[in-house]
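ARCHIVE CARD
Drawer: 12
Card no.: 0347
Subject: one protein chain, sequence and derived structure
Cross-reference: see card 0346
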Amino acid sequence: MSFLLFGVTALHILILVLLFVATLDKSWWVLPDEESVNLWYDCLYYNTTQTWVCSSVSNSEWLVAVQALMVLALLFSSFSFILFMCQLYTMERGGLFYATGIFQIFACLSVFTAAMIYTVHVSEFHQKRAPGGRFGYCFVLAWLTFPLSLISSIMYIHLRKRE
């Protein structure tokens, strides 16, 4: 039983780390000149003036939805982990971790929706840039987080507390 708890906890921590990196790091879209763009700001360094110039990536409502959903997924998954730890020490023997699983499903659906919106509307987000480019590793991490959080939520729903 302790091995199973360790595995579930390690999986959840992995999901949280992947969500943090996917949400905050700078590589959702890679431009043809290998410059990467994140969800929040587009910062360029000008060598002539030796200054950073930052602007919003896009004014699209869809990008705001992606930002909000990624933050929401991070919050749902964090709350799910805290709830799991609380239930682990306070729930009586034989109880199920339904609440933890439900919040993890919410995180799963949030990250799925955010990645799907970004996939469909990526050309709209980068209209002012040179054509071309590819998805960055943060985008891949967001998609990777989706099945992991789905597996985790199913495990939580079926997991029963034992002594």
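Annotation on reverse: Strands lie at 29-30, 36-37, 41-46, 51-56, 134-135. Helices lie at 2-24, 61-90, 98-125, 137-158.
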